[in-house]
Write a structure and sequence with these properties.
The chain has 166 residues and is an alpha+beta fold. It has five helices and six strands. Strand 2 (61-65) and strand 3 form a beta hairpin. The chain starts with a helix and ends with a helix.
Protein backbone atom coordinates (compact mmCIF):
# COMPACT_ATOMS: atom_id res chain seq x y z
CA UNK A 1 0.00 0.00 0.00
CA UNK A 2 1.42 3.35 -0.97
CA UNK A 3 1.58 6.27 1.44
CA UNK A 4 -1.32 8.18 -0.13
CA UNK A 5 -3.65 5.16 0.12
CA UNK A 6 -2.51 4.50 3.69
CA UNK A 7 -3.22 8.08 4.76
CA UNK A 8 -6.62 8.03 3.06
CA UNK A 9 -7.50 4.74 4.77
CA UNK A 10 -6.47 6.08 8.19
CA UNK A 11 -8.44 9.32 7.74
CA UNK A 12 -11.50 7.39 6.59
CA UNK A 13 -11.29 4.97 9.53
CA UNK A 14 -10.90 7.84 12.00
CA UNK A 15 -13.91 9.64 10.52
CA UNK A 16 -15.99 6.47 10.93
CA UNK A 17 -14.97 6.09 14.56
CA UNK A 18 -13.05 2.87 14.01
CA UNK A 19 -10.66 2.06 16.84
CA UNK A 20 -7.22 2.28 15.21
CA UNK A 21 -5.07 0.58 17.83
CA UNK A 22 -6.13 -2.85 19.10
CA UNK A 23 -6.45 -2.65 22.90
CA UNK A 24 -4.30 -5.72 23.62
CA UNK A 25 -1.47 -5.02 21.21
CA UNK A 26 1.09 -4.03 23.85
CA UNK A 27 0.56 -7.25 25.76
CA UNK A 28 1.37 -9.40 22.72
CA UNK A 29 4.65 -11.27 22.92
CA UNK A 30 7.78 -10.32 21.07
CA UNK A 31 7.74 -13.77 19.47
CA UNK A 32 4.30 -13.14 17.99
CA UNK A 33 5.53 -10.48 15.60
CA UNK A 34 7.76 -12.82 13.62
CA UNK A 35 11.37 -12.71 14.68
CA UNK A 36 14.10 -11.91 12.19
CA UNK A 37 16.85 -14.49 12.07
CA UNK A 38 19.86 -13.00 13.81
CA UNK A 39 23.10 -12.47 11.95
CA UNK A 40 25.94 -13.63 14.16
CA UNK A 41 29.69 -13.29 14.12
CA UNK A 42 32.40 -14.55 16.47
CA UNK A 43 34.32 -12.00 18.59
CA UNK A 44 37.39 -12.73 16.46
CA UNK A 45 35.74 -11.49 13.26
CA UNK A 46 37.32 -8.33 11.90
CA UNK A 47 35.48 -5.04 11.76
CA UNK A 48 35.90 -5.18 7.99
CA UNK A 49 34.09 -8.55 7.86
CA UNK A 50 31.31 -7.30 10.12
CA UNK A 51 30.76 -4.10 8.16
CA UNK A 52 30.73 -6.07 4.92
CA UNK A 53 27.96 -8.34 6.27
CA UNK A 54 25.99 -5.40 7.63
CA UNK A 55 26.17 -3.58 4.30
CA UNK A 56 25.34 -6.63 2.17
CA UNK A 57 22.43 -7.67 4.39
CA UNK A 58 21.31 -4.07 4.98
CA UNK A 59 21.10 -4.45 8.77
CA UNK A 60 22.01 -2.12 11.59
CA UNK A 61 23.42 -4.71 13.97
CA UNK A 62 25.13 -8.07 14.33
CA UNK A 63 25.03 -10.36 17.33
CA UNK A 64 28.36 -11.61 18.59
CA UNK A 65 28.40 -15.18 19.88
CA UNK A 66 31.01 -17.37 21.54
CA UNK A 67 32.10 -20.88 20.47
CA UNK A 68 28.99 -22.32 22.18
CA UNK A 69 26.70 -19.97 20.17
CA UNK A 70 25.85 -17.98 23.33
CA UNK A 71 25.34 -14.24 23.09
CA UNK A 72 28.33 -12.23 24.29
CA UNK A 73 27.76 -8.92 22.52
CA UNK A 74 26.10 -6.82 19.87
CA UNK A 75 27.80 -4.64 17.27
CA UNK A 76 25.69 -1.81 15.92
CA UNK A 77 26.00 1.13 13.57
CA UNK A 78 26.21 3.30 16.66
CA UNK A 79 29.14 1.23 18.00
CA UNK A 80 30.90 1.81 14.70
CA UNK A 81 30.27 5.55 14.72
CA UNK A 82 31.20 6.13 18.36
CA UNK A 83 33.99 3.59 18.91
CA UNK A 84 35.59 3.04 15.51
CA UNK A 85 35.18 6.01 13.17
CA UNK A 86 38.26 8.22 13.30
CA UNK A 87 39.93 5.94 15.84
CA UNK A 88 40.69 2.69 14.03
CA UNK A 89 42.81 2.86 10.91
CA UNK A 90 42.93 -0.84 10.02
CA UNK A 91 39.46 -2.39 9.91
CA UNK A 92 40.95 -5.65 8.65
CA UNK A 93 43.09 -6.05 11.75
CA UNK A 94 40.66 -4.90 14.44
CA UNK A 95 38.42 -7.51 16.06
CA UNK A 96 34.73 -6.90 16.66
CA UNK A 97 35.07 -8.29 20.19
CA UNK A 98 37.07 -5.19 21.12
CA UNK A 99 34.39 -2.74 19.88
CA UNK A 100 31.07 -4.48 20.47
CA UNK A 101 28.68 -3.67 23.29
CA UNK A 102 29.39 -6.46 25.74
CA UNK A 103 26.64 -8.37 27.52
CA UNK A 104 23.75 -6.52 25.87
CA UNK A 105 20.23 -6.42 27.24
CA UNK A 106 18.41 -9.38 25.82
CA UNK A 107 14.88 -10.72 26.06
CA UNK A 108 13.00 -13.98 25.73
CA UNK A 109 10.36 -14.36 23.00
CA UNK A 110 7.54 -14.45 25.55
CA UNK A 111 8.29 -10.92 26.84
CA UNK A 112 5.60 -8.39 25.94
CA UNK A 113 5.97 -5.77 23.24
CA UNK A 114 5.34 -3.10 25.89
CA UNK A 115 8.27 -4.38 27.92
CA UNK A 116 10.54 -4.55 24.87
CA UNK A 117 9.68 -0.98 23.87
CA UNK A 118 10.27 0.20 27.43
CA UNK A 119 13.66 -1.51 27.53
CA UNK A 120 14.67 0.06 24.22
CA UNK A 121 13.41 3.50 25.19
CA UNK A 122 15.07 3.58 28.60
CA UNK A 123 18.27 2.00 27.32
CA UNK A 124 18.50 4.29 24.30
CA UNK A 125 18.93 1.53 21.74
CA UNK A 126 17.02 0.27 18.73
CA UNK A 127 17.74 -3.48 18.75
CA UNK A 128 17.10 -6.19 21.32
CA UNK A 129 18.51 -9.68 20.87
CA UNK A 130 16.00 -12.44 21.54
CA UNK A 131 17.51 -15.53 23.15
CA UNK A 132 16.36 -18.99 24.17
CA UNK A 133 16.69 -20.53 27.63
CA UNK A 134 20.37 -21.28 26.94
CA UNK A 135 21.17 -17.66 25.97
CA UNK A 136 21.52 -18.62 22.31
CA UNK A 137 20.18 -15.94 19.94
CA UNK A 138 17.02 -16.96 18.12
CA UNK A 139 16.10 -13.55 16.77
CA UNK A 140 16.49 -9.83 16.98
CA UNK A 141 13.80 -7.17 17.26
CA UNK A 142 14.13 -3.54 16.32
CA UNK A 143 11.93 -0.56 17.09
CA UNK A 144 11.04 -0.56 13.39
CA UNK A 145 9.87 -4.19 13.61
CA UNK A 146 7.52 -3.28 16.47
CA UNK A 147 6.18 -0.20 14.69
CA UNK A 148 5.66 -2.20 11.47
CA UNK A 149 3.73 -4.81 13.49
CA UNK A 150 1.55 -2.09 15.03
CA UNK A 151 0.77 -0.67 11.59
CA UNK A 152 -0.09 -4.14 10.20
CA UNK A 153 -2.41 -4.86 13.14
CA UNK A 154 -3.98 -1.43 12.86
CA UNK A 155 -4.67 -1.89 9.14
CA UNK A 156 -6.02 -5.40 9.72
CA UNK A 157 -8.44 -3.94 12.26
CA UNK A 158 -9.51 -1.15 9.91
CA UNK A 159 -10.16 -3.49 7.01
CA UNK A 160 -11.98 -5.94 9.27
CA UNK A 161 -14.19 -3.13 10.61
CA UNK A 162 -14.94 -1.81 7.13
CA UNK A 163 -15.79 -5.33 5.88
CA UNK A 164 -18.32 -5.84 8.70
CA UNK A 165 -20.02 -2.45 8.37
CA UNK A 166 -23.59 -2.45 7.04
Amino acid sequence: MDQKTLMSTLHSATARGIQLIPPNILSESIGSIGLKDPLTMPPTATLHECLDVMQRKRVGSLLVTDANAKLVGIFTERDFLLKVTGKVADLSGAKVGDYMTKDPVRERPEASLAFALSVMSHGGFRHVPIVDQDDVPIGIVSVKDVVDHFVRRMLDGIFESVDTMP
